[in-house]
Amino acid sequence: MPIHSYNANGCHAMDKTDLHILQILQKKARIPNVEVARTIGMAPSAVLERIKKLEASGIIQGYEVRLNPEMFTCAMVAFVHIQVSDPACFDQTGNTLAAIDQVQEVHYLAGRDCLMAKLRVADNKELAHILQTRINSIDAVVSTRTHIVLSTFKESAKIMLTRII
Predict the structure, then answer these.
(1) CA-to-CA distance for 128 and 120, rounded, in angstroms?
(2) How far is CA 16 from CA 3, 23, 26, 81, in A?
(3) Domains (ranges, CATH) in the chain?
(4) Which of 59, 67, 94, 165 has a CB 3.0–4.6 Å from the CB of 54, allowing a cystine?
């Protein structure tokens, strides 16, 4: 029975084989196609065709390398909650925040704080500089609340696929 995942082009039916391929790729994106094929018991050409379809449909959005932030002097993580003056400014403010190099994520939230940005910086001095010169200087920003991360137990962009298999 196909599993349905919706994308901008409408409905794309995925089966359990597609989901198995996605699980493998989420664990190790650089896994050779031949190894994926061997794991699921298919021909490499068939696996490659499925992966290309998953990419073309937007289900696979890309591949990233995870770098060790400490090796690049950006081990500090902070979450900044941002209150915006006018709901009409959410998109513009979100896009302005997203353009800051140290910002890794920007989310639109329900509640008083309209936006939340995840920053990765070197230290308190760099964080203060970004807050003062980049974030608080945005016209629509009314206030910010910053939470500095002391340690991280889990950080991942993986999607749980086991509940639909």
Answers:
(1) 12
(2) 8, 10, 15, 39
(3) 3-56 (1.10.10.10), 69-148 (3.30.70.920)
(4) 59
120 phi and psi angles, rounded to 5 deg: -125, 115
**Helix extents (H) in 9-154:** 16-27, 33-40, 44-56, 90-98, 124-130
The vertex-4 CA angle with 37 and 105, nearest 5°, equals 85
What does the pLDDT profile of the chain (165 residues) look like in tens digits? Answer: 444 444 444 446 789 999 999 999 999 999 999 999 999 999 999 999 999 999 999 999 999 888 999 999 999 999 999 999 988 899 999 999 999 999 999 999 988 768 999 999 999 999 999 999 999 999 999 999 999 999 999 998 888 887 555
